[in-house]
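Every protein is a chain of amino acids, and every chain bends into a shape of its own. The protein below has been through that process, and both of its lines are reproduced in full.
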Amino acid sequence: ADDLQQSDPETVVDAACLAALFSKAAARPPAGREHEATGRAAVSLTRARHVSKPAGAKPGLVRLSGDVATVRVDLGAEEKRLTRLLATKDGDLLEGKG
C-alpha cells in the first residue's frame, strides 16, 4: 500500500474520498449536492489480493491482510475534489472525455 501512496498520491486521495463519501461515515446531503458532504473518515488502503470475505460474514464485512495503510480524509475540506470526481461519474473520464 505504501508504494501506491508514493507513486500516485492524488489518485489515492481521490479513491479515499469516494470511498468515504459512499460509506456510512459521510453526512450525506440531498441528491445533486453530494459534493457538499461532510465528515471525516479513515479509509483502509491495500491491494485487492489482500481483501477477503470471512465465511458466514455479514454483507460488507471483509478481512484485510498484508500491507494495509490508512488514509484519513475530511470530506468537508475536499469539496472541490468531490465536485471534480462526481462530474466524471457518468463515465466521461473512462471514455477519455474528462
